[in-house]
């Protein structure tokens, strides 16, 4: 009976580890795409600017494919700077920094007794730029047993720097 209970607890912990990995993916995706996505003097999200540095910004509209061509929406610029405007050491201001900030231990066993939690789980989050697709990042959350490299689950998500969403507006 004790073995069945222990197995049930262990399976529940694996499910909780998967939910924790899902939450980590969503936390990473909620951040700014890169350091160039934020205008340092901007007070609201609609003042955000993408500094492209690759001639992908329309000189007339200051928009790129995927942007909404209306006021109070994202703009782009292409000033050929080599460093981001707000690249501050230690500041969490893009997807890569978010991933580093939340990689941690998920569950730790506080007892070595047979009836305690059997495994400790760790999460490792990586964000990598995809060379084959411009403006795309792959986010990988790896939940593993702390006793070794055996993965419990791996969740992957893609993030694309294509623009923004907006509600449809129409005057009557």
- The sequence of SSEs as H and E is HEEHEEEE
Instruction: Strand order, main sheet: write it out.
Output: 3-4-5-6
Determine the strand fraction and express it as a percent band: 15-25%
Q: Based on Cα principal axes, name the global outline.
A: elongated
User: Whole-number radius of gyration?
Assistant: 21 Å
User: Low-confidence parts, pLDDT < 50 over ≥5 residues?
Assistant: 81-88
Structural class: alpha+beta
* Overall helicity: 10-25%
The number of helical segments is 2
Q: Major β-sheet, in short?
A: 4 strands, antiparallel
Q: Average pLDDT value?
A: 68
Termini separation (Å)?
A: 69 Å
Number of strands: 6
The count of domains is 2
What does this structure look like?
With 172 residues, the protein is α+β, with helices and mostly antiparallel strands. It has two domains: 1-33 and 95-172, no CATH class; 35-93, no CATH class. The chain is built from two helices and six strands, in the order αββαββββ. The protein has helices spanning 2-29, 95-102, and strands at 49-51, 75-77, 105-107, 121-129, 136-145, 151-160. The strands form two sheets. It has a four-stranded antiparallel beta sheet. Strand 4 (121-129) and strand 5 form a beta hairpin. Helix 1 (2-29) runs antiparallel to helix 2.
């Amino acid at each position: 009976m004790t073995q069945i209970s222990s197995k049930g607890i262990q399976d529940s912990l694996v499910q909780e580890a998967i939910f924790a990995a899902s939450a980590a993916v969503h936390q990473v995706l909620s951040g700014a795409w890169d350091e160039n996505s934020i205008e340092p003097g901007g007070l609201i999200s609609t003042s955000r600017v993408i500094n492209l540095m690759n001639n992908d910004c329309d000189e007339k509209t200051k928009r790129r494919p995927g942007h909404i061509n209306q006021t109070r929406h994202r703009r782009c610029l292409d000033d050929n700077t080599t460093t981001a405007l707000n690249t501050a050491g230690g500041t969490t201001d893009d997807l890569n920094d978010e991933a580093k900030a939340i990689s941690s231990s998920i569950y730790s066993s506080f007892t070595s007794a047979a009836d305690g939690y059997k495994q400790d789980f760790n999460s490792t989050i990586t964000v990598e730029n995809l060379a084959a697709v411009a403006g795309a990042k792959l986010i990988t959350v790896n939940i593993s047993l702390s006793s070794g490299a055996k993965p419990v689950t791996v969740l992957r998500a893609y993030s694309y720097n294509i623009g923004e969403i907006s509600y449809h507006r129409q005057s009557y």
